Amino acid sequence: MSEADGIVYSDVKFTRTKRNTRGTTSSEAEPTYSEVRILKTHPSTELPGSQQHPVSNGGSKVTPERVVIVVLSALLAAAVIALGFTSLDNMHTKQSFQTLRDELEAVKRNLTERHCEVKSYNTVQQTSPQPPVVKENDPCLKCERGWEQDGRQCYYFSIDLLTWSESRDKCRQKGGDLVQIDSRDEQTFLELKVREKMKNDGDMFWIGLTDSEKEGTWLWVNGSPLNERLTFWSASGPDNWAVYNPDGEDCVMMGKKAGAPDLKCWFDEFCKYTRRSICEKPAETGHFTLQCV
């Protein structure tokens, strides 16, 4: 559209009064013309009530749905990483669990032995007129004088030289029996003690194992059979050597003075030979009167 299209001309007539030289005003009017230019504006083509929307610049829109997806993806990745670290920790934990449990059992045994304190009979008689009730798992258990304790068992290492049968009778008189070995730990304890007490290689100790009822069938003194997976025979035993004794070797002794401890120190022997012996009985409170602290 040209500039002329937007302009409208209009004539406006003004009247100016005319003075004469005498100072009076004449009634004649002198017309004056003036040009007025009016800019013609075009009405808006937009409909009433319509709103003008900004033109999109072509960029992508960030919607709430996309934000949620991004957050969930990040959380899932973090969870996968955490699971990987947890699995690795569990693997290391399983490898060391058995070792820790064994160490705990050793600590518990030491603490149990230190937990009990022997007090005099008169002192306890004043504080507790009734004898204490001994529970099955009571940790306050001790051995009488002359016996040596390992856990819940008491052992007596005799200095008397007797036959196997005589040794068993002596053990019974003391309230026990010839020792029955039920674990590797017990064998370790006994072997170390026997080494301390032996005077020479022949100074051995009877234990409660024999095959006198049936050759080759080894039984403990309580009648239970020997566990073949838990034996500690020496390299030469059992051989039932019958050169000097036709009856053979039906009783078992233990002991090894020389060499490093290797637990394999059982020997079958003629039951009529005289040896020292090991008696065994459970630890108990009995008349020893114990107090737990």
UniProtKB/TrEMBL annotation:
<protein>
    <recommendedName>
        <fullName>C-type lectin domain-containing protein</fullName>
    </recommendedName>
</protein>
<dbReference type="Pfam" id="PF00059">
    <property type="entry name" value="Lectin_C"/>
</dbReference>
<keyword id="KW-0812">Transmembrane</keyword>
<keyword id="KW-0430">Lectin</keyword>
<keyword id="KW-0472">Membrane</keyword>
<dbReference type="InterPro" id="IPR001304">
    <property type="entry name" value="C-type_lectin-like"/>
</dbReference>
<dbReference type="InterPro" id="IPR016186">
    <property type="entry name" value="C-type_lectin-like/link_sf"/>
</dbReference>
<dbReference type="InterPro" id="IPR033989">
    <property type="entry name" value="CD209-like_CTLD"/>
</dbReference>
<dbReference type="GO" id="GO:0030246">
    <property type="term" value="F:carbohydrate binding"/>
</dbReference>
<dbReference type="InterPro" id="IPR050111">
    <property type="entry name" value="C-type_lectin/snaclec_domain"/>
</dbReference>
<feature type="domain" description="C-type lectin">
    <location>
        <begin position="150"/>
        <end position="280"/>
    </location>
</feature>
<dbReference type="InterPro" id="IPR016187">
    <property type="entry name" value="CTDL_fold"/>
</dbReference>
<keyword id="KW-1133">Transmembrane helix</keyword>
<feature type="transmembrane region" description="Helical">
    <location>
        <begin position="67"/>
        <end position="88"/>
    </location>
</feature>
